[in-house]
Amino acid sequence: MKRKSDIIGGLIFLAAAVLLILGQLDIFSDINLIKILIFIIAVLAALWGLKDRNYFVFMFSLAFICIVFKHELHLEFLSFYPVAFAALFGSIGLTLIFPKNYPKTQDVKHTGPVDDEVINCSAQLGKTTKYVDSVNMTAAYITVTFGECSIYFDAAKLKTVSASINVDVSMGNVNIYVPKNWQLKNNISSFIGTVSVRGKKDSETVAYVELNGSINLGSVTVHFI
């Protein structure tokens, strides 16, 4: 995911460089190249959001286009707040109807060590707490929509020295509790969201874990315990 965002960012900067050069040519004096660049960025953001099923980025990019280019699109009757709320409600609706698909495992509370490699935890319109006691974990998938999820990995054992924790948060909060000897790498992308860390990591590292996914109007808090 990070590689894709790097490519999109690179294309945007290349387009900006070309438009800045073209802006110095008299043949384009009647064209607002800055507005064209803004339009290209908004369209690319919308396409990326749709491809990645990040409906908040998709809908708000379309809303941005409707507001900024309402004269060019002959949408002068539109005002900011109705468009913004329409984008918000549309994002929520699409997220609920078309959620991201993750590998499936039974989402149960275990009473002893298990062999699950993939861990799922989800919260929709509610609150969920899960204690992971897998002895063979390779990945975890956390999905939250209008809710809160707390998941504890302090008793988990990894299959190898590396694993991934993947989050998909839309208007919710996630609390992730990990051992102090895990080294975390944050790859999470956010749209009006935050990723924070509480506690301190030990100097010794026994596992390397990547945090992947996206946050839309929410937060992820990592606790070292």
* Overall number of structural domains: 2
What would the principal axes of the Cα set say about the shape? elongated
Radius of gyration: 21 Å
Distance between the termini: 28 Å
Which class of secondary structure composition applies to the elements?
Answer: alpha/beta
SSE string, helices as H and strands as E = HHHHEEEEEEEEEEE
Percent strand: 25-35%
Average of per-residue pLDDT values: 79
Number of helices: 4
Q: Could you explain how this protein is built, in words?
A:
By secondary structure, this protein is of the alpha/beta class. The protein has 2 domains: 96 residues, no CATH class; 107 residues, no CATH class. The radius of gyration is 21 Å and the shape is elongated. About 5% of the residues have low confidence.
Secondary structure elements and pairings:
Layout: H1 2-22, H2 33-51, H3 55-68, H4 80-97, E1 118-124, E2 127-131, E3 139-145, E4 148-152, E5 162-170, E6 173-178, E7 182-186, E8 189-191, E9 194-198, E10 207-216, E11 219-224
Parallel strand pairs: 1-3, 2-4, 3-5, 4-6, 5-10, 6-11, 7-10, 8-10, 9-11
Helix pairs in contact: 1-2, 2-3, 3-4
Characteristic terms for this protein:
single chain; 225 residues; alpha/beta; 2 domains; 6-stranded parallel β-sheet; 5-stranded parallel β-sheet; 4 helices
In a nutshell, what does this entry contain?
The chain has 2 domains: 2-97, no CATH class; 118-224, no CATH class.
